[in-house]
Amino acid sequence: MLSTAVKMIPKWQNPRGTFTLLLWSLLLITFPFMIWKALCAFTGSSHPIMVVISESMAPAFTRGDLIFLWNRQPWVHAGEIPVCWFPGKPLPMVHRAIKSVWLDGKEQFTLTKGDNNDGDDVPLYPPGQLMVGRDEVVGVVKGYLPYLGWLSIGLQENPLVTGSVIGGLLLLAAA
């Protein structure tokens, strides 16, 4: 009779069940961060996956494409597509390398241009800078999936949708 009464207690009122629920919730919250950090370590990039938000690289990439970066090669070669992120800028730049030069055979600088742009990117660089340093390259594009980034763009551009998704996830976790 006692075992039946214990089974009838809701899981959230049972201390062991509450602890288990808390552990699963913690795992649900931390798992995406663990996967992200593992991807960062594997690719050598601080941002191994990004979403294209402009049409400057069309037709190679269009707005909403998901791109995958690799940052374990020492040099960026002309023709490759580096992702450059300048200090103080809120967003990175995904443009093709059109020229690479080395100073003293050690330090590399790259000139970039968007495939859909008329001129090179010098006007987009920080003032006084004529090329991109290798340390400003977050990674080189090694692959992409079209349209999958629209989910991220939709969540960033529509706060109501973002709130609804977060609210739904919280309700799911509480159930």
TrEMBL record:
<comment type="subunit">
    <text>Component of the signal peptidase complex.</text>
</comment>
<keyword id="KW-0645">Protease</keyword>
<keyword id="KW-0735">Signal-anchor</keyword>
<protein>
    <recommendedName>
        <fullName>Signal peptidase complex catalytic subunit SEC11</fullName>
        <ecNumber>3.4.21.89</ecNumber>
    </recommendedName>
</protein>
<dbReference type="InterPro" id="IPR001733">
    <property type="entry name" value="Peptidase_S26B"/>
</dbReference>
<keyword id="KW-0472">Membrane</keyword>
<keyword id="KW-0378">Hydrolase</keyword>
<dbReference type="GO" id="GO:0006465">
    <property type="term" value="P:signal peptide processing"/>
</dbReference>
<comment type="function">
    <text>Catalytic component of the signal peptidase complex (SPC) which catalyzes the cleavage of N-terminal signal sequences from nascent proteins as they are translocated into the lumen of the endoplasmic reticulum. Specifically cleaves N-terminal signal peptides that contain a hydrophobic alpha-helix (h-region) shorter than 18-20 amino acids.</text>
</comment>
<dbReference type="InterPro" id="IPR036286">
    <property type="entry name" value="LexA/Signal_pep-like_sf"/>
</dbReference>
<dbReference type="GO" id="GO:0005787">
    <property type="term" value="C:signal peptidase complex"/>
</dbReference>
<comment type="similarity">
    <text>Belongs to the peptidase S26B family.</text>
</comment>
<keyword id="KW-0812">Transmembrane</keyword>
<keyword id="KW-1133">Transmembrane helix</keyword>
<keyword id="KW-0256">Endoplasmic reticulum</keyword>
<dbReference type="GO" id="GO:0009003">
    <property type="term" value="F:signal peptidase activity"/>
</dbReference>
